[in-house]
């Protein structure tokens, strides 16, 4: 405290600071009793901690408050550091910050309740002044306690995130992850469902006057929170606002996953996309922890095939893109297939018409999707047949044209 002049507050005819100092031990016990009574989380703490650390913090808080009443000055840096360290210990113990802050207010309430009944009529001005000083005390103490708590929580979060990243890296690299998982406090599940995802832009990321980086981080946070909310166990992720990898723990071995399990995962991804406010397309594969590298590669390949073939946003497994996946494998057949569309010369108008016609399955549907006249569709389809020798309207050519489009996407040919 600074050496400010004693304001001379009196309540009940006695100097206030002197009066509180005399009853400090019993006042501390009353505060502790009230905190334990009103805050169940404190009642669950060990008796040794309540009588030791917690009581010490209460007594120090009361001394600081009494000094504030004696001098009119707010707590010193040393006194605030003590309260910060105490808040950090509560963070380590997992006591929520709102509960910690409530305890400080309860302490002040107990002190105030012990004083006001004895106030004399001529001391009303002192009571009002003490009330204003009390609010000033809380104004200084509350941010200090909150900062100490949040600094520790941030450290804990960084440590936890680093430990989880170590586990994720070990799993993706095919290294033994048991030790890293143990150090992170995790248990490796029988199965991981590996998601390789692409996340579309949230409308805010493209809005004028909005910082796209901030909007992207907000989208990513919503995505992570929803994913962790719906998945039992610890989700391991390496995600950016554009997408990435997520490992979802599952208690059922990979080979025993049922249609119901996959259907549930599809619903979860739909909820995640809705919460994030962006389209999500994902490839998925399941494996035991040792098989995560191969599963991740397969999930990424499935994602590439699904996006390359123009599939709509949703969850895809290998079975969903089996033909396109096989057609995308390197080899002479793939290159030969891709060349079947070379006569179109990269004509995007004809290629778009072909893709839409094969997907929609009719000239009128294609015309509506492309906003052109059906006769225009007919003309373009005839041009495709003339140039490639493959007629999109003939059943025996449709499978080959679909394969050629997949091969063209896989090889990057125009």
From TrEMBL:
Domain (RsbT co-antagonist protein RsbRD N-terminal) ranges: 25-164
Superkingdom to which the source organism belongs: Bacteria
Pfam families reported in the protein's UniProt record: HTH_30, RsbRD_N
Domain PucR C-terminal helix-turn-helix: 350-406
Record-linked InterPro entries: CdaR-like_regulators, PucR_C-HTH_dom, PucR_C-HTH_sf, RsbRD_N_dom
Protein name per Swiss-Prot or TrEMBL: Transcriptional regulator
The organism of origin for this protein: Amycolatopsis umgeniensis
């Amino acid at each position: 405290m600074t050496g400010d002049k004693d304001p001379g507050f009196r309540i009940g005819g006695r100097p206030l600071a002197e009066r509180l100092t005399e009853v400090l031990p019993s006042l501390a016990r009353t505060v502790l009793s009230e905190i334990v009574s009103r805050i169940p989380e404190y009642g669950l703490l060990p008796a040794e901690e309540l009588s030791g650390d917690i009581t010490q913090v209460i007594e120090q808080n009361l001394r600081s408050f009494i000094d504030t009443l004696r001098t009119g000055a707010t707590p010193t840096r040393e006194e605030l550091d003590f309260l910060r360290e105490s808040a950090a210990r509560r963070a380590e113990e997992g006591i929520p910050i709102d509960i910690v802050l409530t305890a400080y207010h309860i302490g002040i309430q107990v002190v105030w309740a012990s004083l006001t009944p004895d106030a004399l009529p001529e001391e009303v001005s002192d009571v009002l002044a003490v009330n204003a000083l009390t609010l000033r005390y809380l104004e200084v103490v509350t941010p200090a306690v909150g900062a100490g708590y949040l600094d520790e929580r941030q450290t804990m979060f960084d440590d936890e995130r680093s430990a989880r990243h170590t586990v994720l890296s070990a799993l993706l690299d095919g290294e033994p992850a048991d030790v890293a998982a143990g150090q992170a406090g995790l248990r490796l599940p029988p199965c991981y469902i590996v998601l390789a995802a692409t996340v579309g832009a949230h409308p805010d990321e493209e809005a004028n006057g909005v910082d796209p980086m901030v909007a992207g981080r907000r989208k990513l946070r919503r995505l992570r929170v929803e994913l962790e909310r719906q998945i039992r166990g610890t989700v391991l992720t390496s995600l950016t606002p554009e997408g990435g990898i997520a490992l979802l723990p599952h208690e059922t071995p990979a080979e025993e996953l049922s249609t119901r399990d996959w259907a549930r995962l599809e619903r979860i991804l739909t909820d995640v996309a809705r919460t994030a406010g962006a389209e999500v397309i994902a490839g998925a594969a399941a494996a035991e922890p040792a098989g995560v590298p191969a599963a991740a590669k397969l999930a990424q390949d499935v994602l590439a095939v699904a996006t390359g073939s123009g599939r709509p946003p949703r969850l895809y497994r290998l079975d969903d893109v089996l033909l396109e996946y096989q057609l995308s494998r390197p080899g002479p057949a793939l290159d030969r297939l891709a060349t079947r569309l070379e006569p179109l010369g990269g004509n995007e108008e004809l290629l778009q018409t072909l893709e839409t016609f094969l997907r929609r399955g009719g000239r009128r549907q294609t015309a509506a999707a492309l906003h052109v006249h059906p006769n225009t569709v007919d003309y373009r389809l005839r041009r495709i047949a003339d140039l490639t020798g493959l007629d999109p309207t003939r059943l025996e050519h449709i499978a080959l044209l679909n394969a050629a489009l997949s091969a063209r996407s896989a090889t990057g040919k125009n």
